[in-house]
Write a sequence for this structure.
């Protein structure tokens, strides 16, 4: 009789393009989300949570990597023949939600949203298929004052999360200007939609691919380092020069840049309208104290998503970090957004003006960590050790008292046989304090409290005499447990 084949064990590994986050990482992200939400709330935006799943029809076809399989989304077919997909951003769900509930919402509607998004695209270093976004949008305001406000808020947000002035710049352009350039280059009209899409995505990758890479993508195409070939837009030499001229239109001052843009879009009304809007945004930002050291006009900003219709903006970190091979490189973009007046129209048939920004939280966290501005060492709980497993109720009483006083605490629930292992556990948890109570302490009505942080410092540097003068373990009456633990935590800066 043949033996049944054993089922192979599943591999304990995260899927490609995804990652796990543990305690300190989660806490760091939570704190950053709290700070960002604080700025959004201060600007008058209300929170909104939408479903992680939308119909493919509702999401639309606006992904930056439409050349990828499944058009960049994780999608599946339901039994009722509807295609559903995980959201690829937080903007398309907003358009659906606003269209669905618009009669109950104020106009303009100002909302912020935070949560994970998913993209079915080729993973790579620092490029994941799931990541967090923090969005803020104004729906129903046609004035470019709304766009200027978003840019100002983005600047304030970066500074609140410890990106100081000088380490970032918010760059602003207008999609209408690019549309004007396209018109001048002979790329307007419905029959040129595919070519325009390729050009937009190519320009958006300027920081990664350089001018030669962009020139290849707007021409015949480009082969990347892995050997994959991406088909280009097929522009002729003269057309390509017009597009490349637009990308290099930035000048020393905003006024000079605007003048150059007026030259490039001469003969295009939509292009002229876009340049005029940029002038207005610059004036509004200057009035609020947001000068070129924080926010600047830059024609190279395009944004790859196809739904933008007016101003577009991007926040770039200007400092250098080291890559995996130790080479210096600019960190690059951490946020972007723009105006998308046609997105809600897909649902309502009526144009609804809208503008917003999305911040990549994971990239911001990576930037702060690279600069040593992110403390990823989470403070653990106070650990109540177990000297007598028959007295577990007593230890649970101690830990309950600490928790009721607002102190994070736990009872050691592993094998208590080896006391040394309990202290090793506390060290691994980065616990600030250990509470030690044996039979003698219970009989005497006292507790031993060990300052683990101070103890570690003494062990590293102190002489025997200093160690005797600076004890790190205290014996106090049972009733003074909370007060003494709080005193130690306050002394550590963990209160």
């Amino acid at each position: 009789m043949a033996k049944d084949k054993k089922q192979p064990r599943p591999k304990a590994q995260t899927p490609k393009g995804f990652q796990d986050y543990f305690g300190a990482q989660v806490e760091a992200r939570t704190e950053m989300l709290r700070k960002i939400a604080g700025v959004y709330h201060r600007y008058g935006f209300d929170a909104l949570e939408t479903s992680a799943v939308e119909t493919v029809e509702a999401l639309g076809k606006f992904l930056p990597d439409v050349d990828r399989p499944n058009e960049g989304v994780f999608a599946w077919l339901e039994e009722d023949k509807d295609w559903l997909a995980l959201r690829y951003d937080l903007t398309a769900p907003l358009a659906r939600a606003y269209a669905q509930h618009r009669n109950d919402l104020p106009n303009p509607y100002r909302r912020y949203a935070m949560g994970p998004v998913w993209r079915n695209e080729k993973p790579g270093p620092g490029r994941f298929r799931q990541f967090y976004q923090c969005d803020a949008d104004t729906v129903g305001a046609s004035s470019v004052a709304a766009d200027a406000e978003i840019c100002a808020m983005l600047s304030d947000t970066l500074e609140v999360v410890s990106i100081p002035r000088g380490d970032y710049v918010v760059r602003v352009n207008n999609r209408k200007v690019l549309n004007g350039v396209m018109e001048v280059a002979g790329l307007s009209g419905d029959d040129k939609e595919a070519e325009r899409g390729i050009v937009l995505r190519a320009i958006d990758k300027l920081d990664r691919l350089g001018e030669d890479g962009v020139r290849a993508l707007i021409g015949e195409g480009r082969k990347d380092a892995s050997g994959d070939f991406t088909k280009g837009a097929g522009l002729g030499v003269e057309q390509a020069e017009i597009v490349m001229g637009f990308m290099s239109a930035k000048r020393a001052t905003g006024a000079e840049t605007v003048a150059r843009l007026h030259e490039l879009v001469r003969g295009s009304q939509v292009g002229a309208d876009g340049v005029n809007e940029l002038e207005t945004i610059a004036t509004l930002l200057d009035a609020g104290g947001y000068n070129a050291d924080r926010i600047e006009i830059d024609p190279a900003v395009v944004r790859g998503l196809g739904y933008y219709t007016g101003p577009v903006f991007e926040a770039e970190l200007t400092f250098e970090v080291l890559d995996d091979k130790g080479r210096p490189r600019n960190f690059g973009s951490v946020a972007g957004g723009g105006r998308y007046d046609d997105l809600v129209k897909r649902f309502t048939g009526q144009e609804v003006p809208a503008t917003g920004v999305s911040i990549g939280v994971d990239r911001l966290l990576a930037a702060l960590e690279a600069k040593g501005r992110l403390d990823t060492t989470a403070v653990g709980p106070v650990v109540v050790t177990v000297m007598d497993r028959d007295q577990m109720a007593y230890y649970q009483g101690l830990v309950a008292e600490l928790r009721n006083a607002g102190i994070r605490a736990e009872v050691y629930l592993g094998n208590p046989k080896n006391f040394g292992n309990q202290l090793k556990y506390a060290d691994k948890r980065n616990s600030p304090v250990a509470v030690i109570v044996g039979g003698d302490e219970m009989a005497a009505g006292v507790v031993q409290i060990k300052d683990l942080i101070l103890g570690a410092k003494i062990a590293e540097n102190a002489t025997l005499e200093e160690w005797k003068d600076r004890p790190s373990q205290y014996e106090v009456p049972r009733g003074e447990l909370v007060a003494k633990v709080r005193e130690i935590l306050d002394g550590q800066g963990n209160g």
Summary: The chain has two domains: 23-370, 382-492. The two ends are 68 Å apart (CA to CA).
